[in-house]
Amino acid sequence: MADPLTISLVAGSTLLSAGSQIQAGKTSAKEAELSAQTAELGATQREVDRKERLAQALSTANAQAGAAGIAAFEGSPLTILQQSIENEQTATERDMFNTRISALTTRARGQTAKRVGQVGAATSLLKGGAKTSQLLTPED
Known about the structure:
The structure is a single chain. By secondary structure, this protein is mostly helical. It has helices at 4-67, 75-136. Helix 1 (4-67) packs antiparallel against helix 2. The termini are close together. The model has no long low-confidence stretch (mean pLDDT 84).
């Protein structure tokens, strides 16, 4: 049987290792969540930027049509403006969809890292328990 100090050191290092693995997994999950939220915020900002550019383009087109003596929002200029609006909406929907997929993937990686930390901690505890058991077993 090993001395109590050795047994204490093995048990302490096992618990420390398990705690570190759990904490690393939690940290990875939090980092993944933050990354996913940042991606979603970026998509929202891109949507706002696209809408601002569209509004500016519509305003410019309206001013140019008026300067050329074309009635605003009639005929060809209206068709062009409608197409611009539809293109913007399609781009926004595509960007939001891609961002959602990316965010879900990032969150899944974070949860996987958290689980890996938990499994690693459990493995460390089992190995540490086995080592402690060996130390406690009297030698023949």
